[in-house]
């Protein structure tokens, strides 16, 4: 693995471990703050560089539209995030602090930059950003032919206060990360315990269903023959006998469905998906397998239409991708039943650079205010959910070099769009 890929994985792990990155928020902040700050501080007499501020605003701008980035660029998103923060905060504030001869105003701005970083990255990235950023900011100041001049000198207590801010900020940031990790581990432990405790009785139910299926038909046929010969006056009609004959399959289907839910819950709590087990998959085969293995009831099967006319291949772990489809199925069926209307349609679209799988239901839909948060971990608005299913889907799609997005109109439809990089050669596109 190349050094670049290792650094990308390091960045992805740190960003995901912190709960994600606030790309759009910082992008809007950068586009507004740096030009507006130049105007205000220039009026107040500060020595400002219009070029430095314009560069900060320009590199912040693409972060506003990360959802529209081409898929081939999205694997470098966190690298761009890192470089944007590096320039806009430590490099820019160090350069401008030196340019203004360590004025009190820019000592305050320097501290505000540190505070902002504590809000948007974990303590490891913060330390890297500030150590590298201060050094590069100083070198940029020197290489532009300027001389370091201290107007008043550093306040005597500044280094102490600033050092204390860094130490305390890192401690609290690290503790936050530990608490989040413990929360996830607790959920995993509880889920594992529930799964273990449920498997035993479900296995017994499944075994009982097998026994009933083996011996009940003989009993039913004997009962039918006795009724036809008039040797019994049983109150069991032919319809009731038929219902009795169907009970083993119902019990077995219910147990199988429960096993599916358990497996899905445990799979959703995975923090990572190994790329070593990736293999070439057919999207049509994956959809058909998921629909077969999900233990759909007959009435559920009637709600689903598969219109995959254009099959395509992609690299993924078949089991984990099957659980992506399981999550979409579970949510769609829940909201269709909640709305008491709707159906599910699955289709594909092939392209030169990317292929897409569309998964749409015309059930309850998602409200506009909740839609931006559906892929956030532990975000849920239902009593049956844990808020990890769609976060798991996003993690899997990101790992295979793709993406998952959602469009919805409340009361009309919800459409998930799974985007896959088109295979140009016989190996994974990462």
Question: What's the arrangement of secondary structure elements?
Answer:
Layout: H1 3-17, H2 23-43, H3 50-60, H4 71-74, H5 77-99, H6 104-120, H7 123-143, H8 158-228, H9 238-268, E1 279-282, H10 283-293, H11 298-301, E2 304-307, E3 313-316, H12 318-339, E4 344-349, E5 354-361, H13 389-399, E6 403-409, E7 413-421
Parallel strand pairs: 2-4
Antiparallel strand pairs: 1-3, 4-5, 5-7, 6-7
Helix pairs in contact: 2-3, 3-5, 5-6, 5-7, 6-8, 8-9, 9-13, 10-12, 12-13
Structure characterization notes:
With 430 residues, the protein is of the alpha+beta class. The chain has 3 domains: 3-155, no CATH class; 185-268; 279-421, Heat Shock Protein 90 (2-Layer Sandwich). The chain is built from 13 helices and 7 strands. The strands form 2 sheets. A 5-stranded mixed beta sheet has the order 2-4-5-7-6, with helices on one face. Helix 3 runs antiparallel to helix 5 and helix 9 (238-268) crosses helix 13. The mean pLDDT is 78.
Helix-and-strand structural type: alpha+beta
Number of strands: 7
Number of domains: 3
Strand content: 5-15%
Unreliable runs:
none
Whole-number radius of gyration?
29 Å
- The helix count comes to 13
Outline the biggest β-sheet. 5 strands, mixed
Q: Helix content range of the residues, please? A: 55-70%
Give helix and strand order, one letter per element, not per position.
HHHHHHHHHEHHEEHEEHEE
- Mean pLDDT, as a whole number? 78
Distance between the termini: 11 Å
Q: Strands of the biggest beta sheet: in what spatial order?
A: 2-4-5-7-6
**Global shape:** elongated
